[in-house]
Amino acid sequence: MNEITVSGWTVLDTAHEALRSTVRGITAADLDRPTPCSEWTVAQVLQHAAGDQLAYAASITGGPGPDFNPFAPSGSLDAEPLALLEPALTAGAAAWATVDRDAAEAPVPVPPGSLAPWLGAGAAALDAAVHAWDIALATGQESPLTAGLARDLHKVAVEIVEPLRRFGAYAAPIDAPGDEIADLLHYLGRDPAWTA
């Protein structure tokens, strides 16, 4: 078994493992299933999630990002799901491992283009973890979100999500009571009780 690259940022490493574990649980028959991202299938969410992690890595390293638009995923995979995802997670973790925690800011591929390092790593984590949840729900797996992870990600979400809603990255928030996981999902415009 290959050694997994870690970033040293707990929230990001936890989110990466949530996405990795969820993708391990999907089959070829799952790839065309609908997801809570209403316009996208499981394959498209997977492509988007992998592309986003590559974009975060490229922002830090100056290296190449995804060779497709993560916001227009084709849904056609040229590799097994985990083989598509793992290089993106490895690149993302390796890039974030180089970021100085005491730096004033770190480059990110989302507006405003740079964030405090803890927030940038959290933004990458939010993307990975929420798409892990999307895929898990679509494929009948257990939610990979824990109360602790959701609590940490909610702190990130309130700092970065509002400007991103204008670009369609997140739906309007849902006003409903819930636990830490539901609160995060509601804030991101996702219904914890979604079904296909």
From TrEMBL:
Q: Which domain of life is it from?
A: Bacteria
**Where does the record place the Mycothiol-dependent maleylpyruvate isomerase metal-binding domain?**
13-136
Q: What NCBIfam families does the record point to?
A: maleylpyruvate isomerase family mycothiol-dependent enzyme, TIGR03086 family metal-binding protein
Please give the name of this protein.
TIGR03086 family protein
Q: Which residues cross the membrane?
A: none
Which InterPro entries does the record match to this protein? CHP03086, DinB/YfiT-like, Maleyloyr_isom, MDMPI_metal-binding
